[in-house]
Design goal:
Elements (H helix, E strand, L loop, with lengths): L16 H25 L16 H31 L6 H23 L5
Helix pairs in contact: 1-2, 1-3, 2-3
């Protein structure tokens, strides 16, 4: 009995140097952006300033502040892991830090929305 011809092994995708370099640069910039947005998250504690005359929910304000401080770092970690996996698989990865940057910026707005919910009339 004869064996069927062996299938040729699939060729590895070529390494795109420009994608690797651009992804690394964008990941570093995403790290800087996460630090900046996390720093701005601490300013959400000032949402409690009008609470002397209003009945505020300090739990919501604190939760919003912690979301705005911590969520950028979570998004950065997820972004870095996905980008590294794509780079190892030799697929385009430069777009991942761009999407991660949008999510990092959005995380501050999510925290601000939560903190603002703790202040009635805002």
């Amino acid at each position: 009995m004869t064996q069927p011809p062996a299938l040729p092994s699939p060729a590895k995708r070529p390494l795109r140097t420009w994608d690797l370099v651009l992804t690394i640069i964008l990941l570093v910039l995403a790290g800087v952006l996460a630090a900046i947005m996390s720093f701005f998250g601490f300013f959400l504690a000032m949402a409690s300033d009008p609470c002397g005359v209003r009945d505020c929910s300090f739990d919501l304000i604190t939760t919003g502040m912690f979301v705005a401080v911590g969520l950028p770092w979570l998004f950065l970690i997820i972004t870095a892991v996905v980008a590294i996996v794509l780079l190892v698989k030799r697929r385009l990865a430069f777009w991942v830090p761009l999407v991660g940057g949008v999510l990092i910026i959005a995380s501050w707005f999510i925290g601000a929305f939560i903190a603002a919910a703790g202040v009635p009339g805002s």
